[in-house]
Design brief:
There is one protein chain. Strand 3, helix 2 and strand 4 (78-81) form a beta-alpha-beta unit. Helix 1 (25-39) packs across helix 2 (52-61) and helix 3 (106-118) packs across helix 6 (167-174). The protein is globular, with a radius of gyration of 20 Å. It starts with a strand and ends in a 22-residue tail after the last helix. Helices cover 31% and strands 15% of the residues. It has helices spanning 25-39, 52-61, 106-118, 130-137, 154-159, 167-174, and strands at 2-6, 9-13, 44-47, 78-81, 91-93, 99-101, 141-143, 149-151. It is of the alpha+beta class and 196 residues long.
């Protein structure tokens, strides 16, 4: 996803969706490596629950793991994200200043952020693909006993409702794992040539 200025408002834009299924860890890692080398993204977020852990481990061993000490390295862009892990912001502040429970885990947090993005004043730009739009609407949600938001699990969708996994929107939601802004490069110092 990229951010583009449109009439002084930055709009997050999903330029394309590429997906493959039934890849083993090596094939999946090779596919992601090809995309990184070709498209040179600032970050690639990988869900490390399940098979994604093996894909991440391979990419990391090949030198693609993100290193915060080298944020401008165009190769070191892969960041592990645990969908089941704790959210960055477990509580939400309402406009009144009151705190209320927010997302239960990282997956719910990223899906919630993607929902909020769709409501932004500048709008959201996504490819006109039925599969992507179906994925965005597919999972149900509920609140647990402590009022934290949970997104319906992929297993429940597949086994109980007989609906395919929303992998394409999961990929969009992953772009909300952490902020990725434009890198500022300071201009070189000016030479002061004085004539006396």
């Amino acid at each position: 996803a990229t951010r583009e200025p449109i009439e002084n408002v930055y709009v997050r834009k999903v330029e394309k969706i590429e997906s493959k299924t039934k890849l083993d860890n090596v094939a999946g890692a090779n596919w992601v490596k090809i995309i990184i080398d070709r498209d040179k993204p600032k970050r690639v977020f990988i869900d490390v629950g399940g098979q994604g852990a093996g894909v991440y481990d391979l990419l990391n061993s090949w030198g693609y793991g993100f290193d915060p000490s080298k944020p401008d390295d165009r190769k070191m862009v892969v960041v592990p994200i645990d969908f089941g892990g704790s959210p960055q912001e477990p509580d939400i502040m309402l406009p009144s200043g009151e705190l209320r429970p927010g997302p239960y885990n990282r997956r719910a947090e990223m899906w919630m952020r993607s929902r909020d993005w769709l409501d932004e004043p500048g709008g959201a730009q996504i490819p006109d693909q039925d599969s992507l739009q179906a994925d965005a609407c597919a999972p149900g949600y509920h609140y647990n006993a402590n009022s934290y938001l949970l997104i319906e699990s992929k297993e429940h969708m597949r086994d109980v409702r007989k609906v395919r996994s929303p992998d394409e929107w999961d990929a969009v939601a992953l772009t909300f794992a952490e902020p990725v802004g434009e890198t500022y490069v300071a201009p070189p110092p000016r030479k002061m040539n004085w004539v006396v």
